[in-house]
Amino acid sequence: MAFRSDSKPGDEQITSDDIRKATDVSEWFDKIEDIPAPANAILVTYSGFSPAEVIPHVESVRTQAFREWPYPCIGKLMFLELILSKHPYYPEILSRLGKGQNFLDAGCCFGQDLRKLLFDGAPSSTALYGLDIVPAFFELGYKLFRDQEKLHATFIVEDLLKPAKDLPSLDGKIDMISAFNLLHLFRLAEQKSMACRLVRFTKPITGSTILGRQVGAPEAGHYHGLTKDSTVYYHNVETFRQFWEDVGAATGSTWTVDAFLEPVESKMSSRSWAIPGLSWLYFSVIRH
């Protein structure tokens, strides 16, 4: 949901149980009528499902995942959009992976974008990492793509707002990070904390990159989140650039920001909760 809100920045973030109690999550559970062609190609060619098996298989995995976390991106099958491949920087990602660089998908869900990278030609030896707060998503990803023996990515369970201290550290080791549909789930102060955590993952050299897509708005500010009692912050281009100046100052780093707003799809903008000018904010942030 996205209504402008005057909620206090200290309000607690919601849990999956909060969502179930406060919201009719059934409205987020779309019927599967077809599978986007790029995702279908991966499931048939990479995973080995027959065309007739694809929809029932996706339905089964989606249902299990929605029980773990009743989130619109799962119920509405947004994981099938493979949105990393739609980012303007995607060809550069593939090029850099071909030269031996590594990649971390923060908030990776099933790791679908990691599979897309391999499907599109990233070397099988590429060091790929997926990070999410819901460990069940990793096993569901292996189930979705049937590639337990094929995919050699490393999956990490971590809350970016409360980093674990007993996990192998990737700090200072990552060339490229994707953060799709991630920061917009939080308030501004929490976004800053998360972005600072992402910066610590990156190599402290020129060219380290953080990119993604998230909900934005021409009028930046705090809005209602998934329930009326939760609060999120939507950026416009100007506030996002200032945001990264603040993150840079907090981490002793400097970043060049390339960002733009693009109107959301008509089916999303026409929903009753959509704010005027609801947009996707695409960005790439490069260290220098």
Order of strands across the biggest sheet? 3-2-1-4-5-9-8
Instruction: Specify the biggest β-sheet.
Output: 7 strands, mixed
Encode the helix/strand succession as letters. Answer: HHHHHEHEHEEHEEEHEHE
The backbone outline, from C-alpha atoms, is globular
Quaternary structure:
single chain
Q: For the CA atoms, what is the radius of gyration? A: 18 Å
Poorly predicted runs are 1-14
Alpha-beta content class? alpha/beta
Share in β-strands:
15-25%
- Proportion of residues in helical segments: 25-40%
Mean pLDDT over all positions = 87
Total beta strand runs: 9
Distance between the termini: 36 Å
Instruction: Output the number of helix runs.
Output: 10
Description of the molecule:
The protein is of the alpha/beta class and 288 residues long. It is built from ten helices and nine strands. The chain has helices at residues 16-22, 37-46, 51-68, 72-75, 90-98, 112-119, 136-145, 188-201, 237-251, 266-269; strands spanning 103-106, 128-132, 154-157, 176-178, 209-216, 221-224, 231-234, 255-263, 279-287. Strands 3-2-1-4-5-9-8 form a seven-stranded mixed sheet, covered by helices on one side. A hairpin with a 6-residue loop joins strand 6 (221-224) and strand 7 (231-234). It is globular and about 50 Å long. The protein starts with 15 loop residues before the first helix and ends with a strand. Residues 1-14 have low confidence and may be disordered.
